[in-house]
């Protein structure tokens, strides 16, 4: 596109930035169906874009309006080259900035923690309160971060609290769906071929996730949400190729994911989503010699901002008191060996 094809005016006194486009057909594609692309830019940059004929007028703060103009300019050039414009391309430009604009700072994605200091997670059936300090920190991190890890022994509430937060965010309208996943790995024994269809075969592996959901949602409502695919419970292998947007996503028993599976799962994270990875490094059921994806992720991602790692010990066990004693006994024996 030449400079004569696009006119950019930026008068003083907060006058609108006016863009003029030569090709009306490309302008239609630039605006998107029902002006959806313009709406995305308006929302992200807090500007107003008004379309009149072959012109777009951008109203708002002068600097931000100039950024919006640069993004629209870049998208139009893309259309002129014969390529398409979709929401993913717009989101990328808004995050990273177009070649002629500064990157747009992302707004905070933190959601206020219900109850303040006395944290209470409200679900349809009951209120859930974290009992230990580590659990409180964990719950706060789930509301504050788009990606959080919960690592520790069995019985510390890693998955239970994550599902409770997911249900709370779903009820509050912060996400459109809940997706719960686990690796379908047998715990130390071969069960052979299971009867039934695919759902019958994988459901036994997913049962702990069903148990948690049943604690938080009435049975009829849960069944309806599962039927409508607003709640999904699926093996990790079923996640490949998906982009999980506007969802609360939990990967349970992540120590049984391979490094390749973990990378695949983490890169499913879409816009508007929250992802929680839970696991216990002492209960790896992978074949001998296969490294755990949880340990791999912990090593590679622990310095990335906005990713939270939360650790639990036997002191955080909230099951039967004997469970804590059992965990401590095994930990002591491992230390001697």
Description:
By secondary structure, the chain is α/β, with parallel strands linked by helices. Helix content is 40%, strand content 16%. The chain is built from eleven helices and twelve strands. The strands form three sheets. The chain has a six-stranded parallel sheet with strand order 9-8-10-11-7-12, sandwiched between helices. Strands 1-2-4-3 form a four-stranded antiparallel sheet, with helices on one face. The longest helix is centred in the first third of the chain and has 19 residues, at 62-80. The radius of gyration is 24 Å and the shape is elongated.
Give the distance, in angstroms, between the N- and C-terminal Cα atoms.
70 Å
Strand order of the largest sheet: 9-8-10-11-7-12
**Helical proportion, percent range:** 25-40%
Q: Judging from the principal axes of the Cα atoms, what is the shape? A: elongated
The quaternary organization reads as single chain
Q: Give me the Rg, rounded.
A: 24 Å
Biggest sheet record = 6 strands, parallel
Number of strands: 12
Overall pLDDT confidence:
83
**Beta-strand fraction estimate:** 15-25%
The unreliable regions are 1-13, 187-192
**Helix and strand element order:** EEHHEEHHEEHEHEHHEEHEHEH
Secondary structure category? alpha/beta
Count of helix runs:
11
């Amino acid at each position: 596109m030449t400079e004569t094809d696009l006119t950019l005016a930026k008068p003083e006194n907060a006058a609108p930035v006016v863009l003029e486009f030569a090709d009306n057909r490309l302008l239609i594609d630039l605006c998107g169906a029902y002006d959806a692309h313009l709406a995305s830019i308006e929302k992200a940059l807090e500007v107003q874009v008004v379309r009149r004929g072959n012109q777009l007028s951008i109203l708002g703060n002068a600097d931000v309006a100039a950024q919006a103009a640069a993004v629209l300019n870049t998208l139009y050039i893309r259309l002129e080259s014969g390529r398409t414009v979709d929401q993913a391309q717009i989101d990328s430009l808004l995050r990273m900035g177009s070649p002629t604009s500064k990157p747009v700072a992302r707004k905070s994605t933190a959601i206020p923690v219900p109850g303040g200091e006395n944290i209470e997670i409200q679900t349809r059936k009951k209120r859930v309160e974290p009992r230990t300090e580590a659990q409180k920190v964990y719950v706060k991190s789930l509301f504050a971060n788009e990606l959080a890890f919960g690592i520790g022994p069995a019985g510390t509430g890693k998955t239970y609290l994550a599902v409770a937060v997911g249900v709370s965010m779903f009820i509050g309208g912060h996400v459109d769906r809940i997706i719960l996943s686990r690796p379908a790995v047998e715990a130390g024994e071969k069960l052979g071929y299971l009867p039934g269809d695919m759902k019958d075969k994988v459901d036994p592996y997913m049962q702990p996730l069903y148990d948690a959901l049943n604690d938080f949602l009435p049975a009829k409502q849960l069944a309806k949400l599962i039927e409508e695919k607003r709640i999904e419970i699926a093996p990790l292998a079923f996640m490949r190729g998906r982009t999980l947007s506007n969802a609360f996503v939990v990967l349970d028993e992540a120590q049984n994911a391979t490094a390749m599976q973990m990378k695949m799962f983490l890169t499913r994270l879409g816009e508007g989503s929250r992802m929680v990875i839970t696991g216990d490094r002492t209960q790896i059921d992978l074949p001998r010699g296969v490294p755990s994806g949880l340990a791999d992720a912990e090593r590679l991602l622990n310095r990335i901002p906005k990713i939270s790692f939360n650790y639990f010990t036997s002191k955080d066990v909230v099951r039967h008191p004997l469970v804590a004693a059992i965990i401590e006994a095994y930990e002591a024996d491992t230390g001697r060996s």
